[in-house]
Amino acid sequence: MYELLIRNATLIDPAQNIHARKDVAFTRKHVAAVKDTIAPSEAHEVIDGTGKLLTPGWIDLHVHVYEGVSHLGIPADPYCIARGVTTAVDAGSAGADTFAGLRKFIIELSQTRLFALLNISSQGMLAMEVGELDDIRWADTQKALKVIEANRDVILGVKVRLSRGAIVSEASGFRPLLLARDVAEAAQLPMMVHPQDAWTEHTDDIVNLLRPRDVMTHCFNDSVIGGILNPQGRVHESVLAAVARGVSFDVGHGKGSFMWRVAETALAQGFSPQTISSDLHYYNYKGPVYDLATTVSKFLHLGVSLDDAIAKVTSLPARFLVRDDLGTLRVGACGDAVLLDLQRGEFTFHDARDEVRVGAQKLEPVVVVKDGKVYVGERGDKKTSRAHT
Ligand SMILES: [Zn+2]
Predict the structure, then answer these.
(1) Helix or strand or coil: residue 157?
(2) Model pLDDT for residues 158-214, shown as the tens digit of each residue
(3) First to last CA, the chain
(4) C-alpha to C-alpha distance for 101 and 38, rounded to whole angstroms
(5) Rounded CA separation 145/120 (Å)
(6) What are the b/e assignments for 190-226, b being 16+ CB within 10 Å?
(7) What pLDDT, on the 0 to 100 scale, is given for residue 382?
(8) What is the 185 CA–ligand 1 centroid distance (Å)?
């Protein structure tokens, strides 16, 4: 007897190359069966997915959920798992001095399966007014390594932000990237780089330092320094070379990092991000980001196929996690799934500069399953109009 069965939905599981009507059953936290037909009598709980899409639980590689400590923090569960993201990565809200709290009070108490990237600044991202690398003494590589060693089960890599002024002082310059890379190298983990407006003159300086599995997030930001487009509007050669050697480019929509014009220009040249992430945080969860489903819907509007878009929030981020039991619904994998409505109509999508496109499709999560159980917890307030933050 299975514990849970989802019947009659169209299963999209890019890791298994499946796009077909299937029934999926769960038992003891895992996927127990994927078949053309499973009788309802074989399960204790049955959900009818007729007319819906079923995908593995989504993975968001870039969120900020250190609520109550980081100025960016929002509660994870109403905005991650309640919206189909069963696994999320907090991208540098905590550093070596603040990580213990993220682990104890957020990671261990959330229903969303959470991992973290450790900020190279040991304070993490505490305040808007004082940048985490205003003073380079915050970048303590030995401390970072020690915290990584003690928390390898949840720390997946190192995060560094390079923006001049608000985050990195002139005196710190370009050094944070080199220090983050030293730590990542010593820990044999990847790093995620937030590159825009860095203290350098060229995107090449940043991208050429990225190693296979490193991630450049905010890839559709329109900054001249750290953006993927050169002044002629072409994707930098260094970016294409980085993709070829296994560097990932990640969306990280955020409040200031997804511009329709940049995404449209890059996609028209054949450049597509490896992963779609939200960079969901306090200043964008009421718009323009809302959630990962809205972000993915924007890529459907950009012409990314449904299967590719789902891969960019399931199988591809699972590779970054080095977890072959996440981001897929193969038998034996973690029992994480999302049942989605692919709504059709006219949907207004804002980018980070308030430019609007009207899309014809929108993905809406309707049932979320984690570890083989339907999530019934709190769902965050989802406003349809754009908030002023
Ligand atoms: Zn972020």
Answers:
(1) strand
(2) 999 999 878 999 888 889 999 999 999 999 999 999 998 888 888 999 999 999 999
(3) 49
(4) 44
(5) 10
(6) bbbbbbbbbbbeebbbbbebbeebbbbbbbbbbbebb
(7) 58
(8) 22
Domains, the chain, ordered by start = 2-55+330-342+358-374 (2.30.40.10), 57-321 (3.20.20.140)
d(CA 226, CA 244): 18
- Taking the centre of ligand 1 as the mean of its atom positions, its distance from the CA of residue 62, in whole angstroms, is 6
Distance between Cα 90 and ligand 1 center (Å): 8
Non-local (6+) Cβ contacts of 103 within 8 A are: 116, 151, 154
Instruction: Report residue 179: phi and psi, to 5°.
Output: -70, -40
Q: Which helix (H) or strand (E) holds 145?
A: helix 141-150
CA 262, distance to chain mean position in Å, is: 19
Cα 125 to Cα 95: distance, rounded to the nearest angstrom: 8
Positive or negative torsion for Cα 273, 275, 281, 285: positive
CA of 340 to the centre of ligand 1 (A): 26
385 CB-contact burial (10 Å; exposed 0-12 / middle 13-18 / buried 19+) = exposed
Contact 43, 4 (CB under 8 A): yes
Residue 209: what residue type?
Answer: L
How many separate helices (H) and strands (E) can be counted in the chain? Answer: 10, 15
Question: What's the pLDDT tens digit per position in 269-308?
Answer: 999 999 999 999 999 999 999 999 999 999 999 999 999 9
Q: Which two tokens stand for residue 226?
A: 């750290």
How far, in Å, is the centroid of ligand 1 from the Cα of 325?
Answer: 26
